[in-house]
Design a protein that fits this description.
By secondary structure, the chain is mainly α. The chain has a domain at 93-273: MetI-like fold. It is 79% helix and 0% strand. It has 13 helices and no strands. The protein has helices at residues 2-26, 32-37, 43-53, 59-72, 85-120, 125-138, 142-156, 172-206, 209-216, 221-258, 264-273, 277-305, 307-311.
């Protein structure tokens, strides 16, 4: 039942988001036809271009056509190049998924053990040092982390490329080398943030009555935590993971620029620069849907982790 409710909320929220995205871009000043043809275009050519773009029609009709295209997979054609948007968007989205997915894996692999370690040893020097390091890392912007990583691994050590992208089906080794630095730039900063939340969640579990009972029965702190505490500690951590995934999608816009990665962020910034509004609409809507889907999956995962939510 909870899945059905959340699915309905997802559909309604997506519909409202599409209306907001279209409305915000529709009220922006400027004429896409003028941008595409230049300042010396004649009124006849401008009128023809507006007709081809569909911008001479009423806004409700434009919205209905755009929404229908989204539902059918026809994302229209670029105002600037005239090429179909869908294939280009899917190629760029694949690149961003590789980057964000790898960064999320790095963040989880680093943060979960470090956060648990800092919680178990919170009264010892090692736990305090981990906590302090995570707090310091959370204050570092992703683009600054990227610049520092390039300085160390690309400029001085010359172990990895400073930028560029190779598709995995072209040269998998070059693909991995090009993926490491941008993924680390995103993942390590998010790992620092996530470590703090994991530490807090595990500390709450360690102070719970049922865990003290487990330890009183002879289980060690680590074994009691693994057997009885991690599932409860995972509930707030899943919330943060969902929020971080949304943050990574947005943060990838800057990182893709720093490392010259041809993902959605680069496509969005290029489209904004050339005022290719239909591309901007499609990219923003895709990012919005991705964030909403992540929130939906987090809600479903709640019900799996916490039986009380299923009963509620």
């Amino acid at each position: 039942m909870i899945v059905l409710r959340r699915a309905v909320i997802l559909l309604v929220t997506t519909a409202v988001a599409s209306l907001v995205v279209f409305a915000l871009l529709a009220v922006l000043p400027g004429d896409p036809a003028q941008v595409a043809l230049g300042v010396n275009a004649t009124p006849e050519l401008l009128a023809k271009a507006r007709h081809e773009f569909g911008t001479d029609r009423p806004l409700p009709v434009q919205y209905a056509d755009w929404l229908g295209g989204l539902l059918s997979g026809d994302l229209g054609r670029s105002y600037v190049t005239g090429e179909p948007i869908a294939p280009r968007l899917l190629d760029r989205f694949e690149v961003t998924l590789w980057l964000v997915g790898t960064a999320m894996v790095i963040a989880a692999l680093v943060a979960v053990p470090l956060g648990a370690f800092a919680a178990v040893r919170h009264r010892r020097t090692s736990g305090v040092l981990v906590s302090a390091a995570s707090q310091l890392g959370a204050a570092v912007p992703g683009f600054l982390a990227g610049i520092l990583l390039v300085e160390v691994f690309a400029v001085h050590l010359r172990l990895l490329p400073s930028g560029g992208w190779t598709p995995p089906n072209a040269d998998f080794g070059a693909f991995l080398r090009g993926l490491v630095l941008p993924a680390l730039s995103l993942g390590l900063v998010q790992a620092a943030v996530l470590t703090r939340y994991v530490r807090s969640a595990v500390l709450d579990v360690l102070r719970a009555d049922y865990l003290r009972t487990a330890r009183a029965k002879g289980l060690g702190p680590v074994r009691a935590l693994v057997r009885h505490g991690l599932r409860n500690a995972a509930v707030p951590v899943v919330t943060v993971l969902g929020l971080q995934l949304a943050t990574l999608l947005v943060g990838a816009v800057i990182i893709e620029r720093v490392f010259v990665v041809p993902g959605l962020g680069s496509l969005l910034l290029d489209a904004v620069g050339t005022r290719d509004l239909v591309v901007v609409q499609d990219v923003v809507m895709l990012l919005v849907v991705a964030v909403l889907l992540v929130n939906f999956l987090v809600d479903v995962l709640y019900a799996v982790l916490d039986p009380k939510l299923r009963r509620a």
